[in-house]
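Exercise: predict the fold of this chain.
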Amino acid sequence: MSDTAPAGAEMATRYDPQEVEPRWATAWVERGYFTADPHSGKEPYCIVIPPPNVTGRLHVGHALGRTIEDTLIRRARMQGFEALWVPGMDHAGIATQVVVERTLREEGIERRDLGREAFVERVWAWKEQYGGEIVEQIKRMGASLDWTRERFTMDEGLSRAVRVAFVRLYEAGLIYRGERLVNWCPTDRTGLSDSEVEHDEVDGELVTFRYPLSDGSGMIEVATTRVETMLGDTGIAVHPSDERFAALVGKTVTHPFDGREIPIVADHHVDKEFGTGAVKVTPAHDQNDFDIAQRTGLPLINILHADATLNDTAPVEFRGLDRYAARSAVRDAIAAKGLLVAEERPYRHAVGHCYRCHSEIEPWIAGLQWFVKVGELTGPAKEAALDGRVVFAPERWQRSYTAWLDNLRDWNISRQLWWGHRIPAWYCPDGHVTVAIADPAACEDCGSGELRQDDDVLDTWFSSQLWPYSTLGWPDETDDLRAFYPNAVLVTGYEILYLWVARMIMSGLFLVGDVPFRAAVIHGLVRDQQGRKMSKSLGNVIDPIEMIDRYGADALRFSLARAATGGQQDLPLSEDAIEAGRNFANKLWNASRLVLRAYMGGVPALPPAERLTLAERWLLSRHETCLADVDAALDEYRFADAAQALYRFVWSELCDWGLELEKGRLDAGGQEAEDATQLLAWMLERTLRLLHPIVPFVTEEIWQRFGLPEPESLSLASWPEAIEAHRDPAAETALGAVQEIVTAIRQFRSKHGISPKDRFGATAGVSADLAEVVGSQADAALRLAGVTLDVVDVGHEKTAATTRIALTQGWVELSADLFDAAAERDRLSKQRGEIDGTLAKTAKKLANEGFLAKAAPEVVNQEREKHDRLVMQLAEIDAQLAELG
């Protein structure tokens, strides 16, 4: 079934993605090309999409991930796998609740006034009306997802999976309820896991103050960046081996505001080199201090409300102050008591921030919370990476993953929200806890029917960790789960390696009995050309939808694939790169116009080997190399290398050389033209299949014009197989010599202002074994370089009054009469002097330590780039002067 003109029909002079892409994006889905069949008998290949937030819009990071995934899944489908790419969205607990609360405030309504049930109804209504915009945007990219299997983390099936997972972990003793310190966001009023806290450098202060020893024998100094928390101090800690404080361990100090006696304890966690070597211990407001308290028996005193204002535990004069005002007030009060020793301001240090709203995190005791005990889960997850059951690409991420597991604390999964999976735990008046998959009618301990469900919801990542198998029907033993689990590969950014990837591996091993995926492909963040994070304030944000509107989805996809190098952490991208992707699509389109103008359809067939020309043998050999390079790169998840291999072959080898060398045969008529047409059509059709996973739209549109009897779509065509017989080193060597001669003459023309229209003679010196075959390409040399070519032995002496250009294994001579050599030498010498002067100034500036220290980094980099550019220009001029003698 074709949506395009038949073979031989005239193609537009320019490719129009706005006309082509929406048509094929709809047709592919409507015809069910991407719907997987678990009963097909084919080897399965499954990818689950990292579920975007229901509140989200497509950003360039999403576009990168979807491009990589679609490249892998389309290729797998073409290779004969039963390929399934599962779509879906995440309910995004905090993000969605914040959006809906903001909408309610605009109506003059507060969430708590509305009540929980009514609020949740409003969120569902919002989701149905506004949520999921990103789904349509992903479809515009041509993503070959199986939309019949679209899931949502709060749909009926996934909600059941969450409850089953919770209950199984609870019954295994891996989920417990306890009172521990949590990362508290005072803005969102909820706890966060360690992985949801971003540590950013900020300018704060380091305050050193004295605690008086209770026996009056002296003072002990401590330093802190959060002096207000001293109101909740319950101890002073020193290192057990620190001789400076050995005599003080066991003594007490007196709190200057409330007179409490606070013990001095010894603990190995204390850093003897930090501050004074003694640290204040505030167990209710610092994770390390909490750990010290657990080991030494120090009590916990909470001094904060949920909004980070001081509560009634604090002295009267500080109650009600927010944490920042309290910081100043406590410091001033300490100074007034003569206990302030020193202040260092600004003091640069790392502070935890909420990954959603970026407020500073407060370590806080938020009452009884639910936790996952990770100790029994991390070992198997680490072993799965070390023994190769899960492979990381790039491999270096394996070390980061295993190191994180080694230091993992128990995971707080309670969230003080209303939108999300409510914790399946119920409490009776006697304090018994009933944990169940279905809502219980009575307490399982005492039989009381008076039950209250836990108010908290589960951390969003709790449901997301189940995604690779819950989307396939787990906990039921479905056909999809049997066929497609474990998934083949997981593609995601490194920023959620710990939030998501590690947790999926831990839970998959425990709940399903196998790893969730065989490979984890970790990509970097997309940044601008200067390596800066994209932000509205910098004005450097690249909106993928705007780019699709302007240049087409294929252009965006190709530019992202070319940028997706695995060896670096982040990926530079510019609009120029996307425009280059559009130009590539046009280059392919115009090459196809040339090949297909005389092609009348049917399956292309190569001419007999004995009728192949040198150029055709070379082109077949280069195509074979391209196929091998692409296969190797995609097998190893080196997407940039695959894209670059395709770009090099299509733009340079097929278009700039292959088609140019074949034009004479295409115009010759008869058998010669038929052979050239068939070969180029065969080559183009295979090249379209190679390109299709990265640029599906333009390749599908062109491929349909072949009018092949089957399959219906290029997306269902087979992946090209290697043909070793097409490897032809001799043809590559011989034509490589011709290419070098032509390129040298073209560059000589350009350097010395000789018009491309001027025809003249040239002599090439090559080795004896190449002389005949290079000489046979005289017509090609005249067409491509505008010269009549004589070929002689490489040892031939230089002819008088000629300019000799050195080649890799030979030379080219051109008549000196083509231009005024003396005038050209004068021009180049003058240009060299000007560049040399500028280079000296640049070198002097870069040698100036003051400039390097004071100038902005980007200015210094620009100067270095300028220096390198000038050095290259000088080298090029020197080479030209050497040619002129």
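Check your answer against the key: The two ends are 65 Å apart (CA to CA).
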